[in-house]
Amino acid sequence: VCFAQVEPKARDFGYPRRNAFAQPILEATLRDGLGRFSNVVTLFQHTCDEVVEDTSGVTLKLTPQDQASFSLHASYVVGCDGGRSLLRKVVGATLQGATYAQRWLIVDLGATKERLRLTRVLCDPARPAICLPGPGGIRRYEFMLRDGEREEDVTKPEAVHAMLAAAGPDADAPIVRAQVYTFHARVADIWNTARIYIAGDAAHLTPPFAGQGMNSGIRDAHNLGWKLAAVVKGELGVDLLKSYQSERAPHARALIDFAMNIGRVMMPTSIWNARFVQGLFRLSKLIPPLHDYFAQYKYKPKPFYHEGFLVPGDPLKLAGRMMPQPFVEDRNRVTHRLDALSGNGFALIAVGFNAQKVMADAMAQGHGLKIDAHLAVVTHRYNIDPVEAEGVTALRDLEDTLAKIAFNRDVLLLVRPDRYIAAAVAVTSAADIERFAASVRNLSYATGARLPTKARAA
Fold first, then answer.
1. Which of these, 302, 418, 222, lies nearest to 17 by C-alpha position?
2. In this structure, are residues 287 and 293 in contact, taking their beta carbons and an 8 Å threshold?
């Protein structure tokens, strides 16, 4: 009996809140994408034997298979080297949290007869299981193992097929992989030295129940990547990198707790525990706001930075928040997702009826940053002002997503390359725009960025 359904419909950031993908295909796509960059070299089947850090950078001793070792030197090194990370040991970090004895059998199928598009969770105390659809007709099953069940026994084809038969119509499906996992809920206490940083499983290990392991690693890379680029290019100072752990670690911990709570629902310890939890979910249907909280996936922790590279004390409570992504319409009535027009660097975005004028005035200010895009977004009920300001991209918010977060006021935002809001101000006069520019300059200079000549002279 289905006691709860989670089918979120909101698309705050332009896409569904839940998506299924095949991780090997995604990884191959990312790897192939590196071919766009002539300065990137990939070295597979190399062992890192030694790491030496000094004030100028990091030297790595690498050994290819059946070949002589050689050294590489870099200004910065990021260790995305997994749960057994060498670089984590080099930075002096330890994992804090717990490793659980509970084991799960992960079964990947090459084809499936199960047509349900949603993830199906079987909260059966006898054998909790999860059935996850994937693209292209593939499917994954996850089965909790009992104490005493041996890995060499449960991974035999006949044992796997028996579990599949009990869980759905895929008893005879082709098995691509069957492997036993334990799970961890741990976060490193230190994420970097001056020149070495860790990311992904090297920095945090999460239980599988929320499907957030690789997602968290990509969030790390997105946060750290633009910061390293800005520092190496001299656009911002080295103190910018201090914001990496302070921004990412709290959200990584929140997602681990989130996964653990989901696991408690998925893994009832007894029939009475199962009936109690399932009864609570059924009762929640009598309270629409509570039911909506679960059904629309609102309990997933949203990324929000309380400290880091952002202007503090924002009364609008927008600084530190990920920028929503509505569909917008340009002057030619062509529809875009907002990110497609924001560029890969910093963006200034004005929102509201007077957005075009606010942006024109803001462009006359110095912000101490290289700004890639200047966007003025009016609300859906108004047309774009035909008077164009040079360098401003005027847009119309088709969904009024931005008007809602701005509470229908004129608001000016600085959006970072990773699409988080670094600064925000409600604009009622030219003085608000000037104060906003000054606060952004101070944010930039606090990283150790070099002041312009005029500012140094003053």
1. 302
2. no
Instruction: Quickly count: other Cβ atoms within 10 Å of residue 69's Cβ.
Output: 12
Residue among 81, 86, 49 at smallest CA distance from 65: 49
> Around Cβ 37, how many Cβ atoms within 10 Å?
8
Residue (of 146, 135, 134) closest to 107 by Cα position:
134
Q: Of 438, 427, 451, which Cα lies nearest the Cα of 365?
A: 438
**pLDDT < 50: residue spans in the chain:** 453-458
Cβ neighbours of residue 381 closer than 8 Å, sequence gap 6 or more: none
Q: Which residue has the tokens 């911990």?
A: 253
What's the token pair of residue 182?
Answer: 């334990």
- 146-204: pLDDT as tens digits: 888 999 999 999 999 999 999 889 999 999 999 998 888 899 999 999 999 999 999 99
The closest alpha carbon to 102, from 85, 139, 132, 127, belongs to: 127
Helix boundaries (H) for 193-297 = 213-232, 243-266, 271-284, 288-295
- Name the phi and psi angles at 101, rounded to 5: -75, -20
pTM: 0.87
